[in-house]
Amino acid sequence: MSSQFDFEHPVDIAWCPGCGNYSIVEAIKKAFDELAISRENLVMVSGIGQAAKAPHYIKVSFFDGLHGRSLPAATAIKASNPGLTVIVESGDGCTYGEGGNHFLTAIRRNTDITNIVHNNMVYGLTKGQASPTSRRGFKTPVQVAGVYLEPFNPIAVAVALNASFVARAFSGDIDKTKDIIKKAVTHKGYALIDVFQPCVSFNRINTFKWYKENSYYLDDSYDPYDRNEAFRKAVETEKFPLGVIYINKENPTFEENLSVYKQNKEPLFKRSVDYQKLEQLMEEKRK
Question: Which end of the chain has less neighbouring CB within 10 Å, N or C?
Fold first, then answer.
């Protein structure tokens, strides 16, 4: 099925055949189409890495940030024009490693954005070093004796910080991933989706089969509004739960807390600049 987010001409894709990123892109485009989001009102923001190439293969306005710096750029874009749908996507290294502090801040600020993280438990772009989510014992050309660090658990961290929306998906299930993305995009507030996706070139341990055998979907009886139960699910590591794990609708968004929108709801980019006041301010700073 064609999508408004497909290019009219062939695109040279830099991913390896069989990479889990392909499925995530398909799920994203399907979610956008089913939500009837117009391309004019949508911006994607990414960092650096193989996962961060995803917006290059979607016909959409996007901004490539520095490594680990996609969330601050997305926050600024959303603050400048709250009417936009802003999607942040990048990999586990970019988001949880280099961008770890920004990840924590985005949760606490509760910016109204959706953060899709391609989690393949390895650095793919730089040829296979361990990432923050690599499992203990995972051997790489750098970690020759195997990873000894405790894997970073983004789901547990997000629930512990009382994040607005926390979910986990699997790239092998395009339709289910698409449904989770739709729920995240329509949620008001910061939404994290940690997506398990195999790296077929540099991680031969955490394969499609491994993810299938080591995960399960939460059933309809599960209550994502129960924070204590969400945290219990977040720390499960024998088998990882998939689906919407936690929802918190109580906190106001970052944009709602900005003083510039308390009296005037007009987006910043539409407002005129008072150059006289700006000159006065600059003059005061010069003194």
Answer: C
pLDDT tens digits, residue range 221-251? 999 999 999 999 999 999 999 999 999 989 9
CA distances from 263 to 66, 245, 270 (A): 34, 36, 15
Exposed (0-12), middle (13-18) or buried (19+): which is 134, by Cβ within 10 Å? buried
Q: How far is CA 262 from CA 110, 165, 265, in A?
A: 17, 25, 7
Q: Extract the tokens encoding 129.
A: 């070093």
Domains in the chain, start-ordered, CATH in brackets?
Answer: 21-260 (3.40.50.970)
Indicate the burial class of 103 (C-beta count within 10 angstroms; 0-12, 13-18, 19 or more).
buried
Task: Say whether pTM exceeds 0.90.
Answer: yes
Average pLDDT, the chain: 95
What's the chain's length in residues?
A: 287
CA nearest 28: which of 42, 14, 48?
42
